[in-house]
Design brief:
Layout lengths: L1 H17 L3 H7 L3 H9 L7 E3 L5 E3 L5 H10 L11 E5 L5 H8 L5 E5 L3 H13 L6 E4 L2 E2 L4 E6 L18 E7 L1 H7 L5 E6 L5 H6 L3 H4 L2 E9 L10 H10 L2 E8 L3 E8 L3
Parallel strand pairs: 3-4, 3-9, 4-5, 6-8, 9-10
Antiparallel strand pairs: 1-2, 7-8, 10-12, 11-12
Helix pairs in contact: 2-3, 3-4
Length: about 270
Amino acid sequence: MVMRRGLKSYISLRALKSSLYVPIIVYKFDNWYSFLSNYIGFKNEAKIYKFRNSIRIKTNEGIDSITIAVIFIKKEYGEVKNNSTVIDIGANIGVYSIFAATTSKNTIVYAYEPMPKSYKLLLENIRINSLGKNIFPFQQGVCAKKEKRKLFLASASPFHSLYGAKEGRKYLEIDCVSLKDIFDDNKIKECDILKLDCEGAEFEILYNTPKEYLEKIKEIRLEYHNQVQVKKDYNIKSLMSFLQKGGFKTIKFRKNKHSGNAWCKREPI
């Protein structure tokens, strides 16, 4: 009985918070009712969400609606300027890649996603939006160096991680590359936006990127997940200090207990 009341209160709280975005959701989506049902948590269904401007996003599960809301409704990763070069690490089903490619002109996105099920939908979402000339997908993880790693599986697709090894926890072996490899393999001279949502791997990715490659990045927009149990400097305070010394200025920061969002912009020399 206590659990039932707790669940009811949780859903009610989400519904209350979500109500603030209802007008925007109705304005943005043809099938807004289906989107809202999954976003609030009343349902947990795979759907194809249809935007009124003709964008389509096919999803694996209800929680994908939250990712769509974060990027398209709340715009927690910001806007993208025309003619941008974007690197999307932790592309998942391609929501941010599609946002970047459809809300700006002549933008090129390099999208990295190692999870087979998510990568399959990434390819499908590129196809149904005719974005094959704008988004270049790679079924690879990103870490400190080119190697094979274990990707530990979570209950929902956005939360699979290179960290969190526990006895009996299921994992997949995946191919990984470094951020340096991404620049070299794709002959990227300059990156306008580096977006990271990779469940804790952001620390080893950035710490192990040579200085001359970090200097090619204009902006970093990331979701961080402190991993101090792995290494002491795998925390956002240490990372922001590292980036500041590398010429970046913090322009946005939102902190939760163990995670949050941060934007950094390279200061002009």
